[in-house]
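CORE FACILITY INTAKE
Project code: CF-77B
Contact: R.S. (postdoc)
Sample description: multi-component assembly, two entities in total
Requested service: structural model of the whole complex
Turnaround: standard
Below are the sequence entries exactly as provided by the requester. Do not edit them.
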Amino acid sequence: MRRFLASAWFPVIACLTLLLGTLGATLWLPPMPGNEAISAGGPEMEKVVTIGTWVLGPVAALVSFCIIAVFNGIRRLLRVRQVGLLHPIVIVVGLGPWLAAGWQLVMVEPRFTPAALVIIDVFGRPLLVGSLLAAALTLILSLGLLLPTKR
Amino acid sequence: MRRFALIAAVAATLPLSGCLGDVMEVLCETTPDSDHCYQAAAVQQAEPETCDKIEGKDFTVSNPPRDKCFLQIAQNTGDPSACDGVEGGFMSYSKEECLEGAFRNHSVEDCASADDPAKCRNAWGAAGKGCGDGWTWDRQKGVCDVPKDEPTETENPFENDKVKEDLKSIGDVGTSGYMQLLDWDIEHETDPDRLAGLQNYKEFLESSSGTLEDLSTTFDRLQELKKLFIDSYDPKDSIENMSAKDILSKGAFDRMKDRIFGEDPPTARSQAEDALTVYEKMLEQQKDNDFMQQGRLGRVSETLIGQAKDKVTGDLKESVEDIAKTVAGDAFAVVGIVDHALSSFQEAAQKEMFVGLAAAYNRQRDSLVQAHPDWSAEQLHAATVAGVKANPYEDVPNAGFVKFGNILENGDCKDAGSNPLCIDNRVFWTAMDKTYVFAQKSR
């Protein structure tokens, strides 16, 4: 378990969860007023939003992976050895921007304008669901750190 | 390619975790229809200052997009000060329309979340809609202010030194000048609740001076009594000041679930059950209030008579409490029926009748709102209560609720004896009113 937590598979699985969680939420979350407001913007806007919803998951996962890679690179440069402990922290830092953005959009941002409704319901909700799933998976897998080591 | 760049730009701004309105404002500088873009950005941010960037290029005499911007901000936030920038004019929106939009489905308490709460409250106060709990309208300064405790004549050390010497018994109250000091306090009191306390205290002293003429007392004891009477009218813990929003607000997990998966639309049953939840919480608060009132009544007699437990003292205390209850009415009344009222509707078998009664209130109020859109909230509530009580057995048939006529026939719980089907009228209709108003604002 510790070898897995220290390996590159951990961030890969976290980012895949973010991607699949975001895509799955886009497809299966029940429609809200923002989803219905897309058509009011015209066919051009509808196409842009549809492409955006498909692109959101992969872009978020890729950006998170890059952030995690950068932080892991810094860790290696500084020769910090506590990989098993730091890896989950770095992964959560990589997911952090999407979690923050999703939370801000869904829980904080007021729903005053049609544009806000579209952004919150079409992009914000899947982003929040995907990042919450990825963060939860990271924390659950990190419980392996509490397992006793074999000596 | 351009489309991809736009998508990438939107996606790139999402991690900023900033306000959507700020992001929209940045994009407005490059869009062809900047007026409507700035309008959307200003409304989303709820910032009237951003509305000033709307030029109204397509209009000459007035600027309707700009005025609509202020109107929408006022409608969304309930802040009438957002209407200050409305110019009105031909084909545009007027300041009156803007103010009406601000007041509709909002209350002055919404000012707590405004950018400038003081300015918002002052706008409500200037429109004659009140300043909210804990604030009063200062006519001279034209602002909402926190009521200050002005010094009273009975607390004036120079005046009360003269009175102290002459005051030996209750019978001396009138001749010693204490009543004159009290009259000065009453004349200069502006807070209506404190005024009610002072007036009833004066009436208590006038009644006592005849019945308990020889009962010895001191100036300090009378000041303690005065404070007890004023506290009895303090509305701080009154159920009228309880908020249905606080009682019915959901926890963080439920709010997140509603935001992600959507909220189920309210049904007649869910709204009736919400009203009963508010009724239950208000009954519990009323129980605490009744307990405090009972304590105060005991302290009135102990302050005047002392704590001795002989028969003479007991009779005197009873006389004092009777005078206090006669004079002060509900302030010292202890009905003691809250426990009975609480248990009566919590029994599952009986609860359906209460749900039916609450649903009937909501149905009748909905129809009155449609029939009389110009009526105030107080008028609508009074008419609804009268309507529900007048025709309990003629409620809409097949509405899916158990008939509730028995509850109204049994009257108040204090008159119903051991019959469980009763309501506490003090609390029930207040709970229905507050829940209905809260539900309207939530829609």
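Facility notes:
- Chain B touches chain A at residues 3, 6-7, 10-11, 14-20, 24, 40, 43-44, 46, 72, 76, 255-256, 259-262 (CB under 8 Å).
- The first strand of chain B starts at residue 136 and ends at 138.
Invoice: internal transfer
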